[in-house]
Design a protein that fits this description.
With about 475 residues, this protein is of the alpha/beta class. It has two domains: about 160 residues, DNAb Helicase, Chain A; about 280 residues, Rossmann fold. It is about 50% helix and about 10% strand. Strands 3-2-4-5-1-6-7-8-9 form a nine-stranded mixed beta sheet, sandwiched between helices. The N and C termini lie far apart (about 60 Å).
Length: about 475
């Protein structure tokens, strides 16, 4: 072990000299490397950090960069002697003939900086692990967070040629012409027609008051996607995996789930259920029913899952947002929910997967004269949920609202009891809409409305793109 500690930290002193000399040769090259080197801490030698910071300060003030101006800034900051005076700055300028390779030198410097930080991070892990009260999970989480922060801090050049972006769009258009979806299918015709499937990187919020069928709809979408050979990861923070499995079995077999729970089924039905369960065995639907899960935990779990399943992950479902563990105390709940919402969007973008997150609505919706029809302001705990989401969906069941206001269930016609609306209240990349569905509560199953023809977005589009 002592062999490792006897070695010097990773460094690229020559590259630091050549980089600073190149910028002195061509000050315009500073803007090119400032995306690679963020704040000067990447330099191993303190004097090189000081020269870099002086160059950046001059650029920000609109002043020229040369030996005299850099020396003047350093002298004002009391660091000219640290650097070695004007002579050292002049020697930097003479160290290279031109600024041709500054980006290469910058990459070398940053690479060594990352290796040094990995060493520092490992040292922190060692210290935490040696604590008598060390908790394995907490040490693993803090270690992963340090590495994740280091990776996230890197600026990457992500610009794409317009021609490539246009060609990607035309490929999606061609898929639509052949009746194919570019995103993950939900198997609800009007919804797929409106969204072209759930798109990669999108955060979709599905919100409703309790008992409206949020989990049922999310589970229906997850199962429908899995039946079409998509890989789905369902995080259930409220219900356990067996409860969800019963719901899926009830929905797929269309057998009242109360019969399944109480075992009131005959031999013929058991054989039918066994056949259905064999069909379900081919579905790539995975359930994680861990409780007390943080947003960072979800990201870690999804990364591991995607690697484990050969980079296959087509949909992530989180049931539900307000059940996720937050940092801080209850007074900061809105801040915590906002952070979790932001992290779910990070998850969607990083893993290139749609994330469907369920959320609660506040009680105001139940007292509204319009029959409890939800709107964006009803999202509970944090307005940032709406901001982070690419789409916001609401479930509205008029009969359920009538029951909550005291009307006896037997007085409501059966057809009206099944009436459900999926309100697309926000759609960042398309039109909003009100999609009619049917809810079969005994099976916890939503279906396309039988008497409503499928409408194309053009037929109902009001021009209100988000």
């Amino acid at each position: 072990m002592s062999d490792y500690y006897s070695k010097e930290y990773p460094q690229a002193i020559d590259a630091e000299v050549w980089l600073l000399g190149g910028i002195l040769q061509d000050p315009k090259s500073l803007s090119e490397v400032s995306l690679i080197l963020r704040n000067g801490t990447e330099f191993y030698l303190e004097k090189h950090q000081a020269v870099w910071n002086a160059m950046v300060a001059l650029t920000e003030s609109g002043s020229p960069i040369d030996v005299m101006t850099i020396a003047d800034v350093l002298e004002k900051n009391g660091k000219l002697a640290l650097v070695g005076g004007k002579d050292y700055i002049f020697s930097l300028m003479e160290s290279v003939p031109s600024a041709a390779n500054v980006d290469y030198y910058a990459e070398m410097i940053r690479s060594k900086y990352i290796l040094r930080n990995l060493i520092f991070s490992s040292n922190e892990t060692i210290k935490e692990s040696l604590e008598p009260t060390a908790n394995t999970e907490e040490v693993l989480q803090s270690t992963e967070k340090r590495i994740f922060d280091l990776v996230s801090d890197q600026v990457k050049e992500n610009a794409e040629a317009l021609s490539k972006v246009a060609m990607d769009f035309l490929n999606k258009l061609a898929m639509r012409q052949h009746g194919l979806l570019s995103g993950c299918p939900t198997d609800f015709k009007d919804l797929d027609n409106l969204t072209n499937g759930l798109q990669k990187t999108d955060l979709i919020i599905l919100a409703a008051r309790p008992s409206m069928g949020k989990t049922a709809l999310a589970l229906n979408i997850a199962a429908n996607a899995a039946k079409q050979n998509k890989t789905v990861l369902f995080f259930s923070l409220e219900m356990n995996a067996q409860q969800l499995a019963i719901r899926v079995l009830s929905s797929e077999a269309e057998i009242d789930q109360s019969r399944l729970r109480h075992g009131k089924i005959d031999t013929e039905t058991i054989h039918f259920l066994l056949a259905k369960s064999k069909e379900m065995a081919d579905m790539s639907l995975f359930i994680d029913d861990s409780s007390e899960v943080r947003a960072f935990d979800l990201i870690s779990k999804c990364r591991i899952f995607k690697r484990k399943h050969n980079n296959n992950l087509d949909l992530v479902v989180v049931d539900y947002l307000q059940m996720m563990k937050i940092n801080g105390n209850s007074e900061n709940r809105a801040v915590g929910v906002a952070e979790n919402s932001r992290m779910l969007k990070v998850l969607a973008k990083e893993l290139q997967v749609p994330v469907l997150a369920l959320a609660q609505l506040n009680r105001n919706v139940e007292n509204r004269p319009t029959g409890g029809r939800p709107q964006l302001s009803d999202l509970r705990d944090s307005g940032s949920i709406e901001q982070d989401a690419d789409m916001v969906w609401f479930i509205h069941r008029p009969a359920k609202e009538k029951e909550k206001k005291g009307k006896d269930a037997y007085e409501i016609p059966e057809e009206e009891k099944r009436e459900a609306h999926l309100i697309i209240a926000k759609h960042r990349n398309g039109p909003t809409a009100d999609i009619r569905l049917e809810f079969h509560g005994e099976f916890t199953k939503f279906k396309d409305h039988r008497f409503t023809p499928v409408q194309h977005p053009d037929d109902t589009f009001s021009g209100a793109y988000q």
